[in-house]
Specification:
It is a single chain. With about 270 residues, the chain is an alpha/beta fold. Helix content is about 35%, strand content about 20%. It has a six-stranded mixed β-sheet with strand order 1-2-3-4-5-6, with helices on both faces. Strand 5 and strand 6 form a beta hairpin. The longest helix has 21 residues.
Length: about 270
């Protein structure tokens, strides 16, 4: 870990900043992002990719087969792709187990590619793409490894949310979304989207510094305060963000994926 803080620059976009997040300086970096947020949002919108017409956004999935099963596991440990698929199968048709304040009420797909070509450097996939009660998009950034710090997850979620807005307003995303979820009441343009950072209970325990777990990835109290301030500023800018704990996962379901029972909102102010 570097002993010098990596400062946020006003000419960066959020998808570039994500790789500079440092545990030791997470509070200071969150403050810098908040102070520069209008510039960073604009930079990110300019840099965000829009897939060409011959490369549609994949919003549907073959529900006759599960993609990642036991054979895809490595050394018996679930990877992020297993959690993504488990979440999708849990909530693709139902909101069962979702806390009242969890913004997505169903999941539309997972691993939704944003990049239009390899030239779109540092842009990849939306981990989970959900829909609100009114069928508006929800960008869900899923983390299962505490070393991928909370602030990094926020920055990635915001960058992907901006990319969804741009694709909705200038590309083919809105039409494809209509075909997937229906068109009633959808706005012609988006000025922002709901963001969610989701992680299994184990990851949240470590981020919050639960004494029963190793504390080497703890988000310090000072950093949590700065992150709350950044989250409030994101909400004012059209990108409200909610933190969600995915409950259970210690056991396998019939498909050898994490057995998920619920998802609940995490209150950083009381954690």
């Amino acid at each position: 870990m570097s002993h010098e803080m990596k400062h946020v620059l006003k000419n960066q976009s959020l998808h570039q900043i994500k790789d500079s997040i440092q545990l030791r300086y997470m509070g200071e970096q969150a403050d810098e992002i908040r102070s520069l947020l209008p510039l960073l949002l604009g930079n990110t919108a300019n840099a965000a990719p829009v897939r060409p017409p011959d490369k549609a956004y994949v919003l549907s999935r073959n529900t006759d087969v599960r993609k990642f099963r036991k054979a895809a596991r490595s050394k018996g440990v679930w990877q992020e792709k297993h959690w993504e698929e488990a979440c999708y199968w849990k909530w693709k048709e139902s909101s069962d187990g979702l806390g009242d304040n969890v913004p997505f009420r169903k999941l539309i797909n997972y691993q939704v590619m944003l990049r239009g070509s390899n030239a779109d450097e540092n842009w990849g996939e939306i981990d989970l793409l959900g829909a609100t009660e009114t069928n508006l998009p929800v960008v869900v950034e899923l983390k299962i490894k505490p070393r991928e710090y909370l602030l990094r997850a926020i920055v990635e979620a915001a960058a992907n949310g901006i990319a969804v807005c741009k694709a909705w307003n200038t590309g083919g995303f809105r039409k494809q979304w209509e075909e997937r979820v229906g068109h009633e009441g959808l706005p012609a343009s988006l000025k922002g989207v709901q963001l969610t950072v989701a992680a299994p209970s184990d990851c949240w325990h470590r981020w919050k510094g639960d004494p029963k777990f190793p504390r080497n990835f703890k988000t310090l109290v000072r950093a949590r305060a700065s992150i709350r301030n950044l989250a409030a500023r994101l909400g004012q800018s059209g990108y409200p963000i909610t933190f969600v704990e995915i409950v259970d996962g210690n056991e396998s379901d019939a498909e050898k994926l994490p057995r998920i029972s619920a998802a609940n909102v995490v209150d950083l102010a009381n954690s």
